[in-house]
Amino acid sequence: MPKREDIHRILLIGSGPIVIGQACEFDYSGTQAARALRREGYEVVLVNSNPATIMTDKLTADKIYLKDLIPASIREIVEIEKPEAVLPTMGGQTALNLAGVLQDEGFWAAHDVEVIGVDIDAIRITEDRQEFRDLMDRIGIDQARSRVAKSLLEAKEIAQEIGELPVVIRPSYTLGGSGGGIVWTYEEFDRKVMRGLEMSPVHQVLIEECLFGWKEYELELLRDANDNVIIVCPIENVDPMGVHTGDSVTVAPAQTLTDKQYQRMRDAAIRAMRSIGTFAGGCNIQFAFDPAGRRMIVIEINPRVSRSSALASKATGYPIAKVAARLAAGYTLDELPNEVTGTTSACFEPAIDYVVTKIPRFNFDKFEGVDEVLTTQMKAVGEVMAIGRTFPESLQKAWQSLEIGYNGLGADREDASPSEVRERLAKPLWDRTLQIRNAFKLGASVEEIADVSKVDPWFLYQIRDIVRLEEEIGKRTIQEMDAEFTGRVKQYGFSDIQIAYLLNGDANEMQVREHRKTLGVTPSYQVVDTCAGEFPAETPYFYSSYEQGTESKVSDRKKVIILGSGPNRIGQGIEFDYSCVHGVNAARDSGFEAIMINCNPETVSTDFDIADKLYFEPVYWERVLDIIEYEQPEGVIVQLGGQTALKIAEKLHRHGIRIFGTSYEMMDLAESRGKFSEILKELEIPFPPYGMAVTVQEAVATAERIGYPILIRPSYVLGGQGMRIAINKEEVQHYTKKIWTLFPDNHVLLDLFLENAIEMDVDAVRDGEETWIAGIMQHIEPAGVHSGDSTAVLPPFSLSEEILQTVRKYVRDIADRLDIIGVMNVQFAIKDGIVYCIEANPRASRTVPFVAKATGIPVSDIATKVMLGQKLSDFRKEGRLISNLEGYAIKEPVFSWDKFPEVPKELGPEMKSTGEAIAFVDALTDEHFRRPYEMRNLYLSR
Amino acid sequence: MKQAPTNGSPCKLALADGIVVNGYAIGHRGETGGELCFNTSMTGYQEIMTDPSYHGQIMMMTYPHIGNYGAMDIDMEADMPMVAGFVVRQFAERYSNLQADESLDRFMKRHRLVGISGVDTRRLVRHIRAQGVMNAVVSSVDLDDERLIERARSWPSMDGLELASRVTVDAAADWCGGDGPRIAVFDYGVKRNILRSFEAQGCAVRLFPASISLEQVLAWEPDGLFFSNGPGDPRAMPDAIETVREAFRTDIPLFGICLGHQLMALASGCEVYKMFVGHRGANQPVQNLETRHVEVTTQNHGFAVREDSIPEKEAHITHRNLNDRTVEGLRFTNHAAFSVQYHPEASPGPHDSHYLFDLFLKAVGMRRRAAAGATEKVTA
User: Fold this and answer.
1) Alpha-carbon torsion B7, B12, B15, B20, what sign?
2) CB-CB: which of A292, A348, A389 is closest to B98?
3) Hey, are the CB atoms on A488 and B42 less than 8 Å from each other?
């Protein structure tokens, strides 16, 4: 069947603010869907409250509603826009639940809106544990023994039926498995059941046989209206059952299943998908295999695109969301081409000839007292994906991508102590693959590690191979690293820093690099082609390895490399990917070949049809330099990818590689507290008195000199990590000690805390001559609450014109002094009529997308063009710097507290929010303003 | 110079066009030659290795990690490996699978199968994709490039090569007995999973040598005739084609897979040609033109039926490959007969096409019931 002609306007529901369990992967899927539908000639009406999304850009949809994702908004939009269909499968559980509520009301039917891409009534089954059980029984798919409880008493009876603890508790209808988990003791059982009953909107929990130690798999499926089903990719979890798949290290394709086992799973998956109603779209199904490989059970079905489908899309090159959207619009799979090859069909199952490893990224450091043990409830805030020809290579590349200071799977620092390794390995923790490596270093056997960790021995053998190679490197000097051996080492993913560390004798990273280059050991770049090389593919989507043939052709166009922002974490999330995507578009507009480097599979920037060329690689110095040397770009853009990209600026500068926009020296001035204060002094801009310390005594002395309350923080960190407000000497001692355990060798900064000051954020663009102020935001919460956790109002709501004049002047003075070319963010605190400058960031900030959405001006786009040589006057002449904001725009922080019930809910100088929403209000009497305003002092912690 | 790792004894792979790559030896130490082709299936290496259709070919797996789950008896598609050699990127010395009998390396050694690992298979796949399949030699005993290239060049071409006689049964043999419909299998190198598929449906299955006459087969009073898969060029099998032609003159339902399909096509007047690269993998989309349904199929063929050669009166196309639109299935006019180019028995690969066995057995059953009815009438 070709596409449907009876519908013209489709409502697409987004997933709202980023929370743990529902992140920017839904911007990726929503954006793909919207673009695909528009290309088919449909009008796309989009609703999402998250301003930091590409899907809410004019580029993506025809009509955009930045509104709360609540039934009232949808009703209002449907009344105005009168869409004929709604596609709710691209916005995660949020969109699906919303569509469900309106279905129950009979709203869709009453307004002649057809729900496409999913069968709402049928999928209820997948959310209701008992109905799902019954359905799986009917179609002959085995499951864990379990039953639903509506009370603690009932729960206890069921636990008795199952037998011994541990058992798993899963509350019904909660996001990302909130409130669930494995329980090992009866005391814990009672507590978790009670909480689960509370959290579940229907007050039900499932008590389930514990499959601890079983192998876990996920399949991504697509089905069309003609009931054709394909499996895009099997994903295997390295972490056995018991850890939420979002928190597990996962690998694609599956590594340890025989064909007969895999086909059994595939058959069951297809049967299961066909059992949940008639619909055309995507679906994710999870299975578990007992370690002996005999019993296979189904765990759950998600009848929508998911985090894993984003991963599977990036892992295979198969654009699941795009195809799912077209299927929902009536196409069948056989009518669609495989866009990667261009010549073959989309109705096939990708074959890959490399290994993909995903490692989640956590932010436990942000949540004091958090339980770091991984459970069936998701805790990760982001993830990285790495592609290598083999598992060892992709695993090491994934560790290089994480940006937590590692240069691969260990082998770059003192090894952990045996007791630490033993303790950590016994629990499912985030660094399990590293602890496995450490255990091998300490002489543990595969059997011992498998027994403790339940990780499949195949993965252990692979990690052991890495360790063996490590030991072989250690026996050599750099001169003994011949071409054959060096090539093999690089094929196992070792970074030059690891090699330098391991070598017997002195060598540094650059010496290793030069040595291997002399030997001709440089990376090759392969295409991600969906078909293992069977057909030619023109897709400019590459990964590096150390093979003989390279497939990336270097064009003779002038090029610019845009560094992405790596894994999402608190303080650096989707906002930076938003800026990167705009940067890419702007660079292309400016006549450059835009080359993207990033390793975050959830993002739009890693969609292979965004940049001219995509290198799915760690934003890690060695890998970045390799690509620069290969592509020979005119320069690199570092202002858009957050601290990730900015951190690389210094090395680029040292290697004489051009940085577009603000120079490295000037960025360094802004980043370095001491130097920046000198500049403020010179510009006669007030700033809170401050000092620096490297010892506790020094810190106390400084604090006594400056006075209390005092703000304490490590220098060079992101999102206010480790930042605290101290009110006396004892607290200064306590906090600084803590900082130095977390960040040894770091300076501690101490600033006088301006109590009850008003905080402001300013985003500005300067072209080398003039500065344009894109937006001034006033925070509702007092200074002391991290700007990312504050409710920001654009324009300011209670500041005099005189203060605003001062602020504008200061921004211009700073921008001129730092010779900013591109974008900059400055933060101020106002107390007793004095404007203090707190900090300046010579890069795109978290608020750039908010300002862009609030004013309708594409700030990052303009900033990029300015970096590449255009002038602000060009944009002004075209009238593109005029804000169309009426009333106020409010940026509301969104938290994921429900994932960390043990952590006290309080706000302070350390950022804790995971996402944000935008609200447009006409007057300050609006609820969106009043509520945070009334509560502004409530959560401030010290 | 970025040569792959060699952490075992050295081994070389030489292509007829002069490319030589280094790697290390896996399995048996020795030398082997054949047509170098590649398979994109990510699982099922042992089934592929033991598939008789690959007789005489050096198989290169595109998936880099091979041997992960060891080797086991239930994954055998024949008594022994059938490929001439095996080429992989990253061979698993150690496996993880509680059901496995032994490592793939030990399995290969036991069967004297020569292999090479540490090869940039992707580069060779792209080379073959551009240049077409070609002969090659793998050796861990002679490492002289020139001599290896020369031997690869002089290796006999698959074009015009008859190979079924080398992998067929020596004499008629029962796979399984029983009272169910009798399926006579013309064994050109039949995969065991085809036989298991018939067995699972309660059939009595007997294998006949490739050179058997139809008369001898009919003497067993079969209810269905099955023409199996197998290696080599079907055009080099005039006797087998003649036997198939005779079979078309009976009223017994016919079913052919792969080589069997090509023989049925040739017997009906179609032409068969050698493909540039061929189809080898477990992800090939095939559309059933009658239902519009798409099956993800296992394929393994280097020859195909030429579409414009199909005589209108004799046969029509029932299945088509969605990637390159080639002929994947035929239904023959005036006879309960059909054939497919791909492998509904899978193993390895998806089970989407298993219904073809049911279709065939339905035809077999109808004829059987009709015959039984006729007998009843006579006796009454």
Assistant:
1) positive
2) A292
3) no
Please tell me whether residues A58 and A157 are part of one structural domain. Answer: no
Residue B245, number of CB atoms within 10 A of its CB = 16
Residue A219 and residue A202 share a domain: no
Quote the pLDDT of residue A164: 79
Same domain, A336 and A298: yes
Query: Cβ separation of A334 and B294 shorter than 8 Å?
Result: yes
Q: What is the rounded CA–CA span in Å between residue B255 and residue B228?
A: 8
Same domain? For A216 and A155 the reply is: no
Tokens 């969609």 appear where? A607
A515-521: long-range pairs with CB below 8 Å, 24+: A515/A478, A515/A481, A515/A486, A516/A481, A516/A486, A516/A490, A519/A481, A519/A482, A519/A483, A519/A486, A519/A487, A519/B1, A520/A483, A520/B1, A520/B2, A521/A483, A521/A486, A521/A487, A521/A490, A521/A546, A521/B1, A521/B2
Does residue A748 contact residue A713 with C-beta atoms inside 8 Å?
A: yes
Poorest-pLDDT segment among A220-224, A638-642, B339-343, B375-379:
B375-379
Q: Which residue has the tokens 């691969």?
A: A408
- The complex's ipTM works out to 0.96
- Nearest C-alpha in A relative to B4: A488
Q: For position A743, which CATH number holds?
A: 3.30.1490.20
Q: Nearest residue on chain A to B74, judged by CA atoms?
A: A260
Q: Find chain B residues with C-beta within 8 A of A353's C-beta.
A: 40, 62-64, 89, 121-122, 125
Q: Does residue A488 sit within a domain?
A: no
Residues A160, B337: Cα–Cα separation, whole Å: 59
- The DSSP secondary-structure symbol of A799 reads -
Count of structural domains within chain A? 6
Residues in A closer than 8 angstroms to B320, CB to CB, are none
Q: Are A750 and A714 in contact (CB under 8 A)?
A: no
Q: Alpha carbon of A822 to those of A62, A345, A437, A766: distances in Å?
A: 29, 44, 44, 6
Task: Write down the residue that tokens 């750039």 correspond to.
Answer: A848
pLDDT at A242: 86
Catalytic machinery residues of B: 258, 343, 345
Q: Residue A203 is part of which domain span?
A: 145-209
Neighbours of A292 (CB within 10 A): 9
Averaged over B241-245, what is the pLDDT? 98
Q: Are A246 and A327 found together in one domain?
A: yes
Nearest to A604 by CA among A150, A59, A172: A59
B87 DSSP β-pair partners: B60, B116
Give yes or no: residues A656 and A699 share one domain: no
Instruction: Tell me the pLDDT band of B3, cut-offs 50, 70 and 90.
Output: very low
Contact by Cβ (8 Å): A256, A284:
no
- For residues A726 and A711, what is the distance between their CA atoms, to the nearest angstrom? 6
CATH of the domain at A324: 3.30.470.20
Among A641, A660, A679, identify where a domain stops: A660
Query: Does the beta-carbon distance from A491 to B7 stay under 8 Å?
Result: no
Q: Does B99 touch chain A (CB under 8 A)?
A: yes
Among chain B residues, the shortest Cα distance to A516 is held by B2
User: Looking at the structure, do residues A236 and A339 belong to the same domain, yes or no?
Assistant: yes
Span of A206-215, A570-579, B289-298 with lowest mean pLDDT? A206-215
Structural domains of chain B sorted by starting position, each given as residue range(s) with its CATH number in brackets: 10-154 (3.50.30.20), 164-373 (3.40.50.880)
Q: A255–B68: do the CB atoms touch at under 8 Å?
A: yes
CA angle centred on A139, ends A134 and A142, rounded to 5°: 75
Q: Give the total residue count for chain A.
A: 942
Please name the member of B1, B64, B277 whose beta carbon is closest to the beta carbon of A389: B64
Distance of CA A336 to the CA centre of its chain: 30
Residue with tokens 């059992």: A275
A221 and A195 in one domain? no
φ/ψ of residue B55, rounded to 5: -55, 130
Answer whether residue A900 is part of any domain: yes
